[in-house]
């Protein structure tokens, strides 16, 4: 089993860094690289064996909204360099995974671009990540089957054997259903070649059911991944924390995932280095 790190964006926010949209966590690459590097270092010190680059919002499409589309490659490379430096100085045996996020919104599959646009734009990102030196490509928080399939096609071509994919599923619907209505189990044949296939940015207290819905159907050679968040959107209050906000309680959920066969476990929005420390203390 590998222990993944926890949230970057919410951890930057917790440390007082401006993460307003559209740049969100990418703003730290420009304005607070020292804090961003320390976030990576904190997760490694807490026991993470994998650190994920802060490239969730360094796509040219996102940067264009902030008038910085021409800096996509530059900021992606800088984000990778910060993660690698933190890794090399803190835990040299750890891996650096390059984050590849949805081009639009994690919760709005209807906004996903055409398959051709997805392939072209994700190819630029994945090439930048590989050239910058990541060990592995992590396509994550995918809510659209069309976009996920397009990104996977590119990763399979550019990084054979060095890519994984994780999905943000519908917490209000049936277990294993993507936000565009696709049953994840039916998409699995398109994901052959993945190292890990998982679920992320789903409340920790609801994640196990999603995993169980497709666990027995993953392609040969793929293991499961799970990194949940500590709450859920609320139409009145904006966000409601679950009991998983407590690091020890989150670790208990992680233990359930491990017992279900998950081999890559970490944290998504709202988790902290203390969350990762609790996971390591309970699971290792």
Could you walk me through the main structural features you see in this protein, from its secondary elements to its overall organization?
The chain has about 280 residues and is α/β, with parallel strands linked by helices. It has a single domain (about 1-284), classed as TIM Barrel. The chain is about 40% helix and about 20% strand. It contains 11 helices and 10 strands. The chain has helices spanning about 10-15, 25-30, 35-45, 60-65, 70-90, 115-130, 145-160, 185, 205-215, 245-260, 275-284; strands at about 1-5, 50, 95-100, 135-140, 165, 195-205, 225-230, 230-235, 240, 260-265. The strands form 2 sheets. It has an 8-stranded parallel sheet. Strands 8-9 form a two-stranded antiparallel sheet. The radius of gyration is 17 Å and the shape is globular. The relative contact order is 0.14.
Mass-distribution shape: globular
* CATH fold field value: TIM Barrel
What's the CATH class, please?
Alpha Beta
In total, how many domains does the architecture comprise? 1
Give a concise summary:
The chain has 284 residues and is α/β, with parallel strands linked by helices. Helices cover 41% and strands 18% of the residues. The relative contact order is 0.14.
Keywords:
TIM Barrel; 284 residues; 11 helices; eight-stranded parallel beta sheet; 41% helix; globular; alpha/beta; two-stranded antiparallel ribbon
SSE map:
Layout: E1 2-3, H1 9-14, H2 27-31, H3 33-46, E2 50-52, H4 60-64, H5 72-90, E3 95-100, H6 115-132, E4 136-142, H7 145-158, E5 163-167, H8 184-187, E6 196-203, H9 207-214, E7 223-229, E8 231-234, E9 238-241, H10 247-259, E10 262-267, H11 273-283
Parallel strand pairs: 1-10, 2-3, 3-4, 4-5, 5-6, 6-7, 7-10
Antiparallel strand pairs: 8-9
Helix pairs in contact: 3-5, 3-11, 5-6, 6-7, 10-11
